[in-house]
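Note on ligand handling. Small-molecule inputs were canonicalized before submission; formal charges were left as drawn, and no protonation-state enumeration was performed. Where a ligand contained multiple stereocentres, the stereochemistry in the source SMILES was retained. For magnesium ion, this procedure yielded the string shown in the input block below.
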Amino acid sequence: MKEREVILSVRNLDVNFGSRRRPFRAVKDVSFDIYRGETFGLVGESGSGKTTIGRAILRIHPVSGGEIYYKGERISGKISREMDQKVVSEIQMIFQDPMSSLNERAKVDYIVAEGTYNTKKHISKAERQNLVDQALLDVGLLPEFASRFPHEFSGGQRQRIGVARSLIMEPEFIVADEPISALDVSIRAQVLNLLSKLQKERSLTYLFVAHDLSVMRFISDRIAVISRGQLVELAPSEELFRAPLHPYTKALLSVVPQPDPESERDKKILIYDPQMHDYESDPPVWEEVIPGHFVLGNQKELEVYREEATR
Ligand SMILES: Nc1ncnc2c1ncn2[C@@H]1O[C@H](COP(=O)(O)OP(=O)(O)OP(=O)(O)O)[C@@H](O)[C@H]1O
Ligand SMILES: [Mg+2]
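Structure output:
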């Protein structure tokens, strides 16, 4: 198999909030690699640290420990101005709530063009307008919309404006933070299709954040599961659904609706209780139990996971 290029590498990432003396550890010792061109899913319950990881990658949150590398160069901590510019233009984020993430007072053309005032300072007004028109067309909106305000649009259209705002920067890596969860069920598929079409056309790489696994299966090449700031499992999508190992992953999977009503009726909803694990005397480690399948567990658990993974 051809060696795949790692575009983003997160190594032992810690992000703390609060005071230095009494920090709240929102992200704990998280490590993963994302390959160029893939969709990497990050799934976990509300408050587990997903957005915080995305924001640390975009340098919105400072890291408290560990490093983040983009195309082999460190982008966390103190970096050069050039490197900072590179991150600003090549890494973009699409936000969860299109109703609150757009500046209500600005017209669409300013909202979409905003990033270019930083990266393309010296282009003419007409050139900037062309970029905006093209970005709007690329997401399936009419260039005429440029002179309107965000409140004139539906949720789905607003999310397209958010995507256009990212695309105008010609990004290579996009953090899509629950881009469809605030949208009407009927238009979710449209936005997903748009993201997938753009990915193919521009060989984009996505870090796709969600809190349930149902959508993830179909769009992600690999899925990482996070609970309380820690990754508990990471595997190719099919593998994760075939052989979920960690009890938290199993619990998440048990709430994914099945197409078969029979199994749906007899389904047991699993509950994951971290208190059940004896981690005092036998602390958990992050281990690759079979190639590409990582799980967090203590030595006793890993023994079971290794056996389950090869079954
Ligand atoms: N700026 C901040 N200051 C203090 N605490 C924060 C800050 N941002 C996030 N947190 C806390 O860090 C934890 C992780 O939050 P985060 O927003 O990353 O979760 P999430 O997985 O994205 O959740 P959701 O699915 O609800 O979006 C939460 O306990 C949250 O309250
Ligand atoms: Mg979030």
